Amino acid sequence: MSRAFLIVLDSVGCGGAPDADDFGDEGANTLAHIAQYCAAERPSGGLKLPNLDKLGLGAAVRIASGEKTPGLNEMPNGLWGAATEVSNGKDTPSGHWELAGLPVPFDWTYFPDTEPCFPSALVDLVRQAAGTEGILGNRHASGSLIIEDEAENHIRTGWPICYTSVDSVFQIAAHEDHFGLDRLLDLCRAIAPTLHEMKVGRVIARPFVGNGPWERTSNRRDFAIMPPAPTLCDAVQGAGRQVHAIGKVGDIFSMRGIDTHVKGPDAALMRHLQDAVRDMPYGSLTFANFVEFDSLYGHRRDPAGYAAHLEWFDGCLPPILEAMRPDDIMIFTADHGNDPTWRGSDHTRERVPVLVAGKSGEAGLIAFSDIAASICTHLGVPIIGPGRSFL
User: In whole angstroms, what is the distance from residue 337 CA to residue 58 CA?
Assistant: First the structure.
């Protein structure tokens, strides 16, 4: 009679990863630094997330890192802890796969921070698949900034804008009208197998519109490498249960183990989550990702915007939590950090909070893969991966 909801607040880390220094991120702490920013900059004081804090958000930050969290001081009434990743990365596939019981068993390929950064054979592949004489970009960049830099050249030449980051990604930005959305998706789909053979985690289509200012649209599509082994989604689906994906989760798992999926901006995804809590059958798993914490505020180093989005999310929770059935659990967590007060514009290596509505107690410091094991235990399906249930 139980159901499980796994909700990933993309990039909402809580500091304290023991190997953060290996990634140049020692001291990064997404949640603590946003809370401290709010306490310093707002006349009304710190970060206000009463619903997540009652589940244990402030306590999770403190157990993960010991940092002060102004505004997050509630005594938890949920089951709470903080999770540590073992995969060698701080990116979306690594985080989600490991949350689903599959630590990444290989090292990703990253492109050097040089200009140009892509090998000539890859440039030729993209150029031929796009039917253009060349590409634009060919460097590490923030997606919004490179569009500002290259959009006019893109419209004039018709060449795709190609860029990467410190993560294992190959991203292509193109104008939905001038280049064409279907053409962009076809281009990414055509080159993805070659990038995946290179162990590049994702080819990402980043469509945009406008005539300056430019605006990225919600038609983003991630062409992710197929998980090399079964995940939580496969375990639940294999037991004859339904798996519903919200947001980019279907893309991250290449739709393997996924029965149904819906996408859209975070406001639409919140409505889809409400629908799922109302409608999903007993025994099901709903796996959601809310991406705008990361894409709109973390990468753009916007702590005020990040704080406002956290508070919007928190304010949406009461009717969702109230609609849960007696045997449901809803786990709120993250896949990595993206401290908006940190240097650069990329993800940060952090522990992540683990907050379980529908249970109570302290899970302590756990592993990402313990989340998959706990959901399997709750749903009564065979445990997938190396994790141990904290329920």
Answer: 16
